[in-house]
């Protein structure tokens, strides 16, 4: 594998982790949003990743973000009869976002991002030292 290919792979991984961080931040921002109907209630979202293959289809060439899917886990319902968005039974609908899982996901994505930045920096240093050999 070419050393220059490392930049492409790490770049695609950085993009994928950015999407993951943005999705997690969106989930956290909407964790306490309330709705009167299940159709309008926010649902947790997660990105789906896939391996990019090279032109021959043999070697990994990076990471693709295939899509962002909504969680199918049930929504939370709370009894709050005094809330203005409560339904006829006195219940409000809350998102299916688990803040603990989202924080763990955010930490994992952040560490993955940092690791890929380190790969880029190390590759750059190796290229610079290789160029310095010719002096």
From TrEMBL:
Superkingdom assignment: Bacteria
Q: Which terms are listed as keywords in the entry? A: Bacterial flagellum, Cell projection, Cilium, Flagellum
Q: Which GO CC terms are listed, alphabetically?
A: bacterial-type flagellum basal body, rod
GO terms under biological process: bacterial-type flagellum-dependent swarming motility
Spell out the InterPro entries in the cross-references. Flag_bb_rod_N, Flagellar_basal_body_rod_CS, Flg_bb/hook_C_dom, FlgC
Q: Which residues form the Flagellar basal body rod protein N-terminal domain?
A: 8-32
Spell out the subcellular localization from the entry: Bacterial flagellum basal body
Q: Give the Pfam families listed for this entry.
A: Flg_bb_rod, Flg_bbr_C
Question: Subunit info?
Answer: The basal body constitutes a major portion of the flagellar organelle and consists of four rings (L,P,S, and M) mounted on a central rod. The rod consists of about 26 subunits of FlgG in the distal portion, and FlgB, FlgC and FlgF are thought to build up the proximal portion of the rod with about 6 subunits each.
Q: Which family does it belong to?
A: Belongs to the flagella basal body rod proteins family.
Report what the protein is called: Flagellar basal-body rod protein FlgC
- Please tell me the species this chain comes from: Candidatus Contendobacter odensis Run_B_J11
What lineage does UniProt assign to this protein's organism?
Bacteria, Pseudomonadati, Pseudomonadota, Gammaproteobacteria, Candidatus Competibacteraceae
């Amino acid at each position: 594998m070419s050393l220059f290919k490392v930049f492409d792979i790490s770049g695609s991984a950085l993009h994928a982790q950015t999407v993951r961080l943005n999705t997690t931040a969106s989930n956290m921002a909407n964790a306490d949003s309330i709705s009167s109907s299940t159709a309008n209630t926010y649902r947790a979202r997660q990105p789906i990743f896939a391996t990019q293959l090279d032109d021959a289809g043999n070697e990994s060439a990076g990471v693709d973000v295939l899509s962002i899917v909504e969680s199918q886990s049930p929504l939370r319902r709370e009894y709050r009869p005094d809330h203005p968005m409560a339904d006829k039974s006195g219940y409000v609908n809350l998102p299916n976002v688990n803040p603990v899982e989202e924080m763990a996901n955010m930490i994992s994505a952040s560490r993955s991002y940092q690791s890929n930045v380190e790969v880029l920096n190390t590759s750059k240093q190796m290229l610079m030292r290789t160029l310095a050999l010719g002096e």
